[in-house]
From TrEMBL:
It holds the Pfam family GGDEF. The keyword Transmembrane applies. Its cofactor is Mg(2+). GO terms for molecular function: catalytic activity. Residues 319-452 form the GGDEF domain. This is Diguanylate cyclase. Keywords: Membrane, Transmembrane, Transmembrane helix.
Length: 462
């Protein structure tokens, strides 16, 4: 009986242990299941939050039927409510141009997201847009489904096209172009830049734009240029620069500031044009318009303009200036006896001698066949003007050897002084002219100034 009792007790103990273990495992499994359900619920909540807040448009579909859309997708497809999209076929939102590609991708099955691609999609109102799209297989509500992410890249495409066009223009334009960073370090130049300056791209990369400087402009020029560029965002003007071979050239430049984050300047772009030849042509035309074609001395137009400036300066500085009118004596016989070719050579030689006999600031002009005008910008008194006039007469009297012929001339000179004789340029020249003709009528080969006593009736004084 004792052994039987012990056996029953042992079996009861074993059963109790098994029951305890089974019950304990069940409770642990229940606790584990509860924890997993809580984690799943939290994960699903987080997913739904991310789904709704995602800036990317998201659609979940199963075999093409839309199950869920977020607000971004609803907005992008032009739907006032999700109900206008749910249960529809995703192909309804695909443009015919992209349907073949979309169908091919839908047949692919992968747990990993498919590579991004560009597809043309269609809104509810029928308008289309270019989208960047990717998709991946997921489980939704316990069943396999596909999650599609997409965003409108129409503006990016336009920007890409614009960038491509800009690169093509930059590369192929005939206008030299240069791009620098905000500090003026050269980043990029085009082929036209190389053609005009002689510098290859590698020659100037990371060099300051001052590598082109010729030294023609002073520091104040560049300070003013940069001040305007920074204040206005652009600058346009002419710059005298130096090519790689040392040759000086003139360019018309238009500079623009490129701004980025927080409106800060990131780059400068400079479009240039070589106007050296144009400037030469313009200067040539201007020179021809304002100078005597034979002697290259200033003509009457330029002389009058300079006299006007001299009078204004003299008035401001309380100084005097004078005009001398020279008429050559004996020039007509030279033309008659030796021909106009010799006469022209004589005039050119005299023009050179007269120009060299006055100060650098003064001016000699040819205004007729054998007539010259001289502007003396700053004289002390009448004596100073007469001294110059007498020196010029002596100079003209010196014989000149032209084509082996010794030629002798004389000169009669009349003069007028501002402000003693006249107060404007035309009157001053006219009085000097009258004084010269008075000399020609009375005593050739001398110099005289008109008197300030009576301007209406010019009186000549030695």
């Amino acid at each position: 009986m004792g052994e039987g009792l012990r056996g029953v007790l042992l079996i009861s103990l074993l059963v109790s242990i098994v029951v305890y273990l089974l019950l304990n495992s069940r409770f642990s499994a229940i606790r584990m299941a509860s924890q997993l359900l809580e984690q799943f619920a939290e994960s699903e909540t987080r997913y739904k939050s991310l789904f709704e807040l995602s800036p990317e448009a998201v659609i979940i579909h199963r075999q093409g039927q839309v199950l869920l859309v977020n607000k971004a997708a609803q907005h992008l497809l032009g739907a006032e409510s999700p109900g206008l999209l749910i249960a529809r076929n995703v192909l309804d939102f695909v443009h015919p141009d992209s349907k073949a590609e979309v169908l091919a991708r839908m047949k692919e099955s992968s747990d990993k997201p498919l590579p991004f691609t560009e597809e043309k999609l269609v809104r509810l109102d029928g308008t289309d847009f270019l989208a960047e799209v990717t998709s991946a297989a997921i489980h939704f509500e316990g069943k396999p489904a596909t999650q599609v992410l997409f965003r409108d890249i129409s503006s990016e495409q336009a920007a890409r096209y614009e960038a491509q066009i800009s690169r093509a223009v930059f590369k192929h334009t005939h206008e030299p172009m240069m791009v620098t960073d905000a500090k003026g370090q050269i980043i990029l130049v085009n082929a036209a830049f190389t053609q005009v300056t002689g510098y290859e791209s590698l020659d100037v990369q990371h060099e300051n734009a001052s590598i082109l400087s010729s030294g023609y402009h002073d520091e104040s020029f560049y300070l003013a240029m940069w001040d305007e560029l920074k204040a206005e965002g652009q600058w346009e003007g002419e710059i005298t620069n130096r090519r790689k071979n040392g040759e000086i050239y003139i360019q018309r430049a238009h500079m623009s500031a490129i701004k980025g984050f927080q409106n800060q300047v990131t780059h400068y772009i400079c479009v240039m044009s070589d106007i050296t030849e144009q400037k030469r042509e313009l200067e040539s035309i201007r020179f021809q318009a304002l100078h005597d074609p034979l002697t290259h001395l200033p003509n009457r137009i330029l002389f009058i303009s300079e006299v006007k400036k001299a009078i204004s300066s003299a008035k401001n500085n309380k100084q005097q200036c004078a005009v001398l009118f020279i008429d050559l004596d004996g020039f007509k016989p030279v033309n008659d006896n030796y021909g106009h070719l010799v006469g022209d050579k004589l005039l050119k030689a005299l023009a050179k001698k007269l120009s060299g006999a006055v100060k650098h600031d003064d001016m000699v002009s040819r205004v007729g066949g054998d007539e010259f005008l001289v502007l003396l910008r700053n004289i002390d008194d009448e004596h100073g003007a007469m001294t110059v006039a007498e020196r010029l007469i002596a100079l003209v009297k010196e014989p000149l050897l032209i084509d082996g012929i010794s030629l002798h001339l004389g000169a009669s000179i009349g003069g007028a002084i501002y402000p003693d004789h006249a107060l404007n340029e035309l009157e001053l020249i006219d009085l000097a002219d009258q004084a010269m003709y008075q000399v020609k009528r009375t005593d050739k080969g001398r110099a005289h100034l008109c008197t300030p006593v009576n301007r209406a009736n010019t009186i000549i004084t030695e």
